[in-house]
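REQUEST ID: PR-0412
SUBMITTED BY: lab tech R.K.
PRIORITY: routine
TASK: structure prediction, single protein chain
INPUT:
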Amino acid sequence: MDDNDRARLLVQCPDRPGIIAAVSGFLHANGANIIHSDQHATAAEGGRFFMRSEFVLTELPARLRHVRQVFEANVAGPFRMTWAIHPVSERKRAALLVSRADHALLELLWRWRRGELPMDVRMVVSNHPELSASAEGFGVPFHHVPTPADAREAAEERVLELLDEGTDLVVLARYMQVLSPAFVARYRHRIINIHHSFLPAFVGANPYARAHERGVKLIGATAHYVTEDLDQGPIIEQDVIRVSHRHSVADLRRLGADIERHVLARAVRWHLEDRVLVDGNKTIVFD
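STATUS: complete
OUTPUT:
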């Protein structure tokens, strides 16, 4: 199957009868063949409707502009849709931001090199120099942007200059800096973060030691979109693993890093494949 002729249609709108028929009828009338389709309504009546359809259309690049225009006029407008058509061949351009911990970064780069993450990795940006060889070993440009306490605004401006308008996705692969509201607004629902998850919550520089002191039985990780509220954005993926009194603090750190890298990789892949639709402060994930 030629990726040049494949695309994904994403739709969200107020729910009402006839949406699926209108979308599928439009695609059929324009010669498209639907190969995957998922939908979700938040309530039996009066809710919101979400849909992801993947289709094949011969000579898609030449016809895409016309298809978009006609879809807006005949389907999206009448149903008050927020929508997008993403050609599969147009890979998202990603920037990976990291500090010193390398587990999440290396997982993403390894999966990308294997072809499991369909993206173009434009760069790795870090506030520390230690991981330059790791990035360059994968053939990815590395940029060291220090973030001294008295010049954090200037450092963030430098990061934004590097990202420019050519970045579609920013992944915080254990980037231990808080982004400003202006940064977040520029890439709304296009910044993915990973962090550990504990019940109860343990904050500070050594959360695994605090968790060990309390004898936690579960540790986990959460991948989410970044918003202005720290670690409160829409959740994309989560996972947990059982631990016990037999695990040391070092064991917890090792297990935590392992689960973080897998959760982040899944969240990034789902975003790249247009499987995530944001509904307020939560997500609809067609995995």
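NOTES: The chain is about 35% helix and 30% strand.
REVIEWED BY: pending
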